[in-house]
Design brief:
This protein has one helix and seven strands, in the order E-E-E-E-E-E-E-H. It is mostly beta strands. It has one domain. The strands form two sheets. Strands 2, 3, 4, 5 and 6 form a five-stranded antiparallel β-sheet that branches. Strands 1-7 form a two-stranded antiparallel ribbon. The termini are far apart. 13% of the residues are buried. One zinc ion binds next to loops.
């Protein structure tokens, strides 16, 4: 999504758009499963572009305790601001929006809140089976 700052007055502008998940391009543990729907309120305040962003998407990752796949919806809201350098006519929002979404995700993603994880001795998924290993 591009904001044409040249045409912006001081009033609030509403923009909507979609960021494709394939260009999210992070090969880390988290990937987007749907296009990222963006609704943004954009306002120019002097030489700063202030953007209130609302996103709606979904992501897939693996549980940090049991390593099972986790697929989840994702909604979040945040503010971004951008300096508007003199002479610049457009500002691209996509990278910063993706970045902010990833930063906002929990560091440890769990398949469920009380995931039992894997047995440290036999490696069985304790959500599915009760193993016979002795607990210390
Ligand atoms: Zn789990
Ligand atoms: Zn075990």
């Amino acid at each position: 999504m591009k904001v044409i700052v040249r045409d912006l007055g001081t009033e609030e502008n509403v923009m909507t758009g979609e960021i494709k998940p394939e260009i999210v391009g992070n090969e880390d543990a988290i990937r987007f499963t749907k296009p990222i729907k963006v609704a943004a309120k954009v306002q120019r305040v002097d030489n700063t572009l202030v953007v209130k962003v609302k996103v709606d998407s979904g992501f897939a990752s693996i549980c940090s305790r049991c390593a099972e796949d986790v697929v989840s919806d994702l909604q979040s809201e945040f503010w971004l601001d951008f300096d508007i350098p003199a002479g610049v006519e457009t500002i691209e929002l996509d990278d910063d929006i993706r970045q902010e979404i990833l930063v906002g995700l929990p560091v440890k993603i769990l398949c469920m809140e009380n995931c039992q994880g894997l047995c440290p001795r036999c490696g069985k998924n304790l959500n599915q089976v009760q193993c016979q290993c002795k607990k210390d």
